[in-house]
User: What shape does this take?
Amino acid sequence: MGDSPHDIAIKLVSEIQERSFNEADTRHKIIDRILHEVLCWPKILTLHESFIDPGYADYRLKKKNDEDLIFLEAKKEGVYFSLPNNFNKDLCSKLVSVKTLLTDPNIKSAIEQVRSYCIEEGCEYAGITNGHEWIFFKTFQKGKNWRNLKALAIYNIKFFSEHFTDATNVLGFQSVKDGSLKVFLGAVTRIDREIFYPKEKIVAYNHEVTSNNYVRELRPLANKYFGTIEVSDPEFMDSCYVNQREYEQATRNFQNIIKDSLTPYLEEYGIQDLEDNEKGGRFGNRIAKNVRDVKTGEVIILFGGKGTGKSTFLKKLLFHNPPHYLAKYSRVAITDLLKTPEDEKSIHEKIWNQIVEQLDVESILHRDRDELLELFSDRFAIAKKQTLFGIDESSDSYNVMLNNLIKDWLADKKYVAQRLVEYWRRLHKGCIVVVDNTDQFSHDLQNFCFSTAQEVSDILDCLVIISMREERFHSSKIHGTLDAYQNSGFHISAPVTQAVFKARIKYVLSILKDENKSTELYGVGYSIKKIEGCVKLIRIFKNEFFKIENSPLNEFLTACAHGNIRMALELFRGFLISGYTNVDEMISISGIWIMRIHQVLKPVMIPDRFFYNEVNSSIPNLFQIRSKSNGSHFTGLRILKKLSDGINLDNPFYLTISSLKDYFSESFNMVEDFEENINQFLKMNLVEANNRIDIYCEEVDSIKITTYGLYIYHVLSHYFTYIELVSSDNGFFDERIANEMVELSNEDYRFFMQRKRLERVKTRLKKAKTFIEYLISEEESEKEFFGISPDEMFSYKILEHFESEKEIVIKSATRRSNR
Assistant: This one.
């Protein structure tokens, strides 16, 4: 009985001691024996020196039906193939991207030669070998760049003896004939890696952090003065409304900001970008023209991003402090749908009820019957000819019937609104109806709101203004309707966050310094000492927001908002009352308190929780693995890098989703991970779609990076505090590291409960360092696997920043522990 293929492989390896064969000897003494005696390729199905213009293929391995399976290029033994050395030497083989292998000149020459034969003959698989090193790869795949496909690199001929089963299962004749290479080779991927989540084992993961000692005094300030400006508070409106002039001034003072501006999508529809001045800019001029020319029956749309202040702008322009022409010649009804149930009947009733209520400013509907009959004179005239005809006007029957008629007329809100519009028209006042806060509804209800606005305009023959977010417009069915009007859309940009906070903080200080206003806010008997502490704290914030640059609080909130002032105010409210905002320490300093980035990050990222959880935070976890089947810690960073490289802040470019998707498909085969990251980034405002849609879907055509995305990418992603906070929220491909993160997190919590600040800071530093070292190992692995160049890597830069920041953190913790 002869030797088995495995025995032959063992003997062959032991016989080959030195590399000294020429090409022919290599083929005869090594390659032929591996192919025929170890991998069991039939000699009858192996062709040598097949002519394929312009050369000869060394080996052509075929099926019985004459179909080509593999073309193999043989080089003499002295030709070295320099393979990536970052691999497990015991395995003798590794999956490597073709792109990485092509960086070696000998490999590149051999691969391109054999691939040309394959392309000419339509063969899908190829290999090259010098007898010792072997490489097998796929020559083409539909929709993929062949350089980004993976190759099997065999580093040592011992692979065929020490890993005989693997060798035959992948490269044996029967295996290849049955399709083993179709499964084994293809787009570069690392699927089915188990992910371990530390947060599932951290005991106090959902532990809540109590508010700071000044929460009783700060909460009323936060809720009233760092939220929506109510039209019922004219002093607040006059003091804190930020117009375009302040926007422009703040923009000059605050560099590195991408302006919230009109998108190309809306520009194509002829939407105009208005300038917000005291008279409402172009938008105000349009309304003035409408009122002056008595041009009725029109719908105008005011576009703006999420939280840009559309409602506040409309209330100020039309209600609180209208320009002279509007105050004298118009009557405004603002219908606010913010708290309206999400169904068509409720929306329809709310709009018409509020129109009637707000047009009836003189309480005509609550006056005597005679005055109501004057308002309803048209229907009353008809009733006297029909329903009431022949009935004695002094009789009870007449009065009962007339009262019932009036009751029915009052219940008909559309009719009542018509009569009120006519009433004001006789007084030379044109009516303007505003349908506000529609952007909370679904796409279908958004369509219904617009059709109702048209209905109002048609029935009342008046001007109707509806506010709308751009993404809702794109997803609605009103494009054709908008096309029917000329210049019917206006876009309002959000003010710069710094200008908003400067105005609000200045106003809050005036409230706290006024005894009467403080009493009105807190009631009699409030703590003067606590209010004095609040004044000192707000002055610290004033110092931050009035700086031209180098304010972590201002920069962070400005970046996070990117036009969403509502979000910036919400984050600041959480910051004010968070247990991580150490008010006692801040106000105890005799000199000027200089805020550091970590004093901003924790209160904003986790205002009321000990551990960060992306689900409960307004700040994303940039390192999260979003596709469990095939994801990376670096997909988010790679997206932001693509969008930020070479950016012009005055005119940031849009990249098409298709080009980005192609890159992540060809380079990493991580389409799902890319799409999940884009979805998260759109929702959290790191990127912006050309049509402002805030979820990932087919309608998202192209995207650009926002100020927030730039800030996260260039600044936040490198900071120790951010790294440490998100680390316990991440999934890990390494169970040992995941368990270490659990232990460090639990230790951090124990030191927190024991009030051991210095020990806790050291634990958090160790936790961050562990996470960064894990990221380095992952990125090094991806470097070899995907062929990533050094300038495309992130983790070493993060480590460098961490090392420079670590000493500062330790010094700060030591100094405060000694107080």
